[in-house]
Design goal:
Elements: H1 2-29, E1 34-40, H2 47-61, E2 68-74, H3 83-96, E3 104-108, H4 110-123, E4 129-134, E5 148-152, H5 157-167, E6 173-177, H6 182-195, E7 202-205, H7 211-218, E8 225-229, H8 243-253, E9 258-260, E10 272-276, H9 278-294, E11 302-304, E12 309-314, H10 315-320, E13 333-335, H11 341-443, H12 446-477, E14 485-488, H13 489-501, E15 508-514, E16 518-521, H14 524-541, E17 547-554, E18 558-564, H15 597-608, E19 611-616, E20 622-629, E21 636-637
Parallel strand pairs: 1-2, 1-3, 3-4, 4-5, 5-11, 6-7, 6-8, 8-9, 12-13, 14-21, 15-17
Antiparallel strand pairs: 10-12, 14-16, 17-18, 18-20, 19-20
Helix pairs in contact: 2-9, 3-4, 11-12, 12-14, 12-15, 13-14, 14-15
Length: about 650
């Protein structure tokens, strides 16, 4: 038991080494993926920021595996903007990315952008491409690094003001909802700056009052006004909200349409506008990343304005406020459109069409039936003609069956003749050797007795090999499905050599093995018969002084071996015929044989999905090469 465990451990260790070598070679052949680092200005929980991050990660994940490796960080810089926090964050990232330096760094919004510009030399030792999304004011950072790609994603306030004036030309007031925070104040200031070029429009800040009071107020707004909504998480009283939910409440009370700047608010009560869209933005960032990685110009800086933005509208809100789709800008995307007549009633229309089709089909079937009756008479005539053809066909088949029967009888006759010859020879040897052995025992001649015993053993071996061949032929005729077995191919080959050694005691067999001897085969018994027949032929037809070469090669995919002798070889015209049953070559007439050895070999290889080739050797003799696949799963072991 301990010996078996040691052998098992030995083979397992070899398999582990082979697996590690294969894994190492595969990994070394694969190109190193590019690294992308995403720095988010916010902490987790900011809806727009989280949506952009998720869409961007999904976009990268949808690309081919292994091309880009993505890391991301929520910096929290929008909430903790003091220098000490930024310094500690830089030290943390320096340690974290010391061994995995990014090729591209994407910063979402201005806080992360300004942080990277300030601390990039401290954090990253190698140069990288900086792609950032932010406001127009951040473009002054473009020339601070070797390559910067700016994707301007700030609120497109001017575009939305122009859109409002196009859809509602009489607008004179804009009521704004902004967050009661530094970020919200920045947005409000941005709106004020843009409205300076529109002196006819007055801005009213609804974030100066509690949210409930603001909701009550929007119910009675004048008709010449609209609402601009930005994410509102906190009001003046300190009460917190979910921006989309509070927008839904506002829209239910509002007496005028609501415009926004982010597509994530569509469906919650906003009409729409020129909106920053998370999927659009993620797609733009993905394309810019791959373009930057593929670009050979490492010094050029690029600015893309209005990144990830487009005109998006809610069809239900357009209908509610009487805004026609025809007045929308070109390339506008209208969502939540009402179902068309076809979409509403296509099932009923389909049933109607089906009913009419069924009626027409019934009429066609009646016409078809009448036509079939007319054709039936014609078909009867054809049947009479076909009967004569069938009789002729049956006659031919009977003749073929008779021919096969005659061939089977001829094979049986050949088998009986071969049995008579093959059984008579070893039995005669055994009979005469026993008589001589008895005489040797009487005269007490040990050497003579030993010689006779060897002859008896040779005759018995010949008889046993002949019977094994017959049994194998019978087994192949029954088409038994072989099972996979774990086997030591070297032990199997040595068994074959040992079994033949008594029949050919003075012959030299040179056995070599390349590869691991432990492998998996379909049926070790049939493989042993295959080897034995080929090696027996080589020994049988080789001169006594000649050496027979037996070379084994075992890989993970297949087992191959060749047996080379110095016998008479094969006539080239006869090689393809050697695999037929009871067929022997003209060069082998002086040596006794059954003519089923190579037949069995070919049948076994067909069962194993293997192949065999026969070639004549230079200088005389033949070389037989065999290849058969290794079976992956095993059900038992051979001994």
């Amino acid at each position: 038991m301990r010996l078996k465990n040691k052998v098992l451990s030995y083979h397992i260790s070899h398999l582990v080494v082979i697996f590690m070598l294969i894994t190492s070679s595969l990994s070394s052949a694969m190109p190193e993926p590019s690294r992308v680092l995403i720095l988010n200005s916010h902490s987790v929980g900011m809806p727009w920021s989280d949506a952009v991050m998720q869409e961007l990660l999904n976009a990268f994940a949808s690309q081919q595996l292994g091309v880009v490796q993505v890391d991301y960080e929520y910096t929290g810089l929008s909430s903790y903007s003091d220098a000490l926090y930024a310094q500690h964050l830089a030290e943390l990232y320096k340690k974290k990315y010391q061994t995995k330096q990014p090729d591209v760094v994407i910063t979402l919004q201005g806080h992360a952008t300004r942080f990277l510009v300030s601390y990039a030399p401290q954090i990253f030792s190698k140069s990288f491409i900086h792609i950032y999304t932010g406001d127009e004011g951040d473009t002054s950072l473009v020339n601070t690094q070797s390559k910067v790609i700016a994707l301007i994603t700030s609120m497109q306030i001017k575009r939305n003001i122009e859109l409002v004036l196009k859809l509602k030309p009489a607008t004179s007031k804009i009521y704004a909802f902004v967050d009661n925070s530094p970020v919200g104040n920045d947005k409000l200031e941005h709106i004020k700056q843009e409205l300076k070029t529109y002196p006819a429009i007055t801005l009213v800040n609804l974030s100066d009052i509690p949210i409930q009071e603001a909701i009550s107020k929007v119910a009675t707004l004048p008709t010449d006004s609209v609402i601009f909504y930005t994410p509102t998480l906190l009001d003046v009283t300190g009460q917190r909200f979910i921006p989309r939910n509070i927008l839904n409440i506002i829209s239910q009370q509002a007496s005028v349409p609501i415009f926004t700047f982010w597509s994530s608010f569509l469906g919650a009560g906003a009409v729409g506008g020129y909106l920053a869209d998370t999927k659009h933005l993620a797609s733009d960032l993905l394309n810019l990343t791959f373009e930057a990685l593929a670009s050979s110009d490492s010094t050029k800086s690029i600015i893309y304005r209005e990144g990830g933005s487009g005109y998006y509208f809610d069809h239900r809100q357009l209908h509610k406020w009487g805004i026609s789709d025809k007045n929308l800008p070109q390339n506008s995307v209208v969502k939540f459109a009402e179902l068309t007549f076809w979409q509403l009633y296509k099932q009923y229309l389909f049933l109607l069409i089906l009913g009419v089709s069924s009626l027409l089909l019934t009429l066609l079937l009646f016409g078809y039936r009448n036509k079939q009756l007319r054709l039936a008479k014609i078909e009867l005539q054809k049947l009479n003609e076909s009967l004569e053809h069938k009789v002729l066909h049956r006659t031919i088949r009977l003749q073929e069956s008779q021919l096969k029967t005659e061939q089977a009888l001829e094979e049986n006759r050949q088998l009986l003749t071969m049995l008579s010859h093959e059984l008579r020879s070893p039995m005669s040897v055994i009979n005469s050797s026993v008589a001589v052995l008895e005489k040797a025992l009487e005269i007490k001649n040990p050497q003579l007795a030993l010689d006779m015993t060897l002859k008896i053993r040779q005759a018995v071996t010949r008889f046993r090999n002949f019977m094994d061949s017959l049994a194998a032929a019978d087994r192949l005729q029954t088409k038994i499905r072989p099972e996979a077995h774990s086997c030591d191919i070297l032990v199997l080959a040595n068994n074959v050599i040992y079994n033949l050694s008594s029949q050919y005691p003075n012959r030299v067999i040179n056995l070599t093995l390349l590869g691991e001897s432990q492998t998996t085969v379909n049926d070790p018994l049939l493989l042993e018969i295959l080897m034995q027949n080929l090696l027996d032929n080589a020994l049988k037809y080789s001169p006594n002084s000649a050496c027979v070469e037996f070379n084994l090669v075992v890989t993970l995919q297949d087992i191959s071996f060749n047996i080379a002798d110095r016998g008479p070889g094969f006539l080239p015209a006869e090689i393809d015929q050697m695999f037929k049953k009871y067929t022997r070559g003209s060069a082998a007439t002086k040596v006794s044989g059954t003519g089923i050895g190579l037949y069995l070999v070919k049948k076994i290889l067909d069962l194993f999905s293997g192949n065999i080739t026969i070639e004549n050797r230079t200088g005389g003799g033949a070389c037989v090469s065999v290849r058969l696949p290794v079976i992956i799963e095993t059900s038992s072991k051979c001994h």
